[in-house]
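Hi everyone,

Forwarding the result from last night's run.
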Amino acid sequence: IRTAGIGESGLETRLQPIFDLAGGGLSVAFCAHEGQVDCRLSSTDGRLSQERLEELAAACAEALGEDFLGYGYDSLAKVCADLLRAQDKTLAVAETATGGLLAHAFTDICGAAKFFAGGVVCCCNHAKMQLLDVPECLLQQHGAVSPENAVAMATGAAETLGADYALAITGFAGPTGGARENPVGTIYLALFSPAGVWSRKLSYPGPRCTVKQRAVNAALDWLRRELVRAQRTLRV
């Protein structure tokens, strides 16, 4: 059982009532990694059948709601890709602090051209203005690491590349940079969608590589949740 957006202790607390109903024979193992937690259910002594394990897994998925990512080993990007394909939508990305890591997550998937319009890595302000039409006055007033710039980057990526959705990431991945109001580890995300555009502020401790990966995973999970809600609306 793959999950996203919930910690290991929170996941265990949420699922423990289901595990208690299983009786004996159930083995549970958790594995946490960069904003995701996997939960493996098995019956090492064979007392629980495959069918019973699947029933327990289904109950876990229902209890988790939007925190449930899927069964097996699909990545966050793969889950997003499948949702985009199912809804016939496309995605664009704009990055500074993550330096193309977000785009790589999608281009690592076979057939990415069917849902991924492209990405822009724009670390300097001149590139943001030239490639994404971010207004110079906005950068001067709010700075490159700000919710306003993140929103402008996401909007510019969607409009420039003709995508239905767009993600943007900007921030200070460290170890240098930062300011009192935006210390090292500060990340701003933005999500452009047919329903609107929003920003989020996150703060991650740790080395540069960890901050970058956690920022990418947070952006992917935000997109996934928005796509799940959109799919639910379509079904209604």
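The CA atoms of residues 107 and 113 lie 8 Å apart.

Cheers,
N.
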